[in-house]
Amino acid sequence: MIQRIQTVFLALLAIAMIAMLFLPLWSKTDPTTGEEVVLTAWNLKSYFLTEQGTPGAAGNVPQQGTIAIGMLAIAAAVIAIYEIFQYKSRLNQMKLGLLNTLIIMATLGAMLYYAYFVGSDLVLAGEKGTYEAGFYMPLLALVLNSLANRFIRRDENLVRSVDRLR
Quick one: signal sequence residues (predicted)? Predict the structure, then answer.
């Protein structure tokens, strides 16, 4: 049935992964030159900050595509939506939940790779950079996915216990 609590968790998971596509994930600023590198789900770009702190001219670093992060986030959202409509087969839902966990972990891994190994080398500042709002969306999605899987497993155990009584 669609009105179960795991449906709410899976819908929130899909919303979190789609929101990640539009939010910045990570940024790092070089205080000497005023150049800032920003990682989004689609690209890694740099620009110079104006005196007011707003983005200005393009930076020295050429823009790099990070489409893998965006595609993994879309895949996680699509699997979560598909998982909602697999309510008649809880075992398939649990398998899709496991697959979604792996995809969300791959999204986190890709984000950390681009932030620490690619983006960190572009701006030579002593700090590691700051995590933006979009970075926390896959972490929220992991929590929501584990909650949905817990309630799916609980429903399956309930159905099996009722079958034993018959």
Answer: none
CA distance 144 to 101: 10
CB 87 within 8 A of CB 2: yes
Contact 134, 25 (CB under 8 A): yes
Residue 129 confidence (pLDDT):
82
Take residue 65 and report the two structure tokens written for it. Answer: 């595509």
Q: What are phi and psi of 127, to 5 degrees?
A: -85, 165
DSSP string, 60-93: SSPPEE-HHHHHHHHHHHHHHHHHHTTTT-HHHH
Q: Look at residue 165 and tell me whether its pLDDT is greater than 70.
A: no
- pTM beyond 0.85, yes or no: yes
CATH number of the domain within which 19 lies: 1.20.140.150
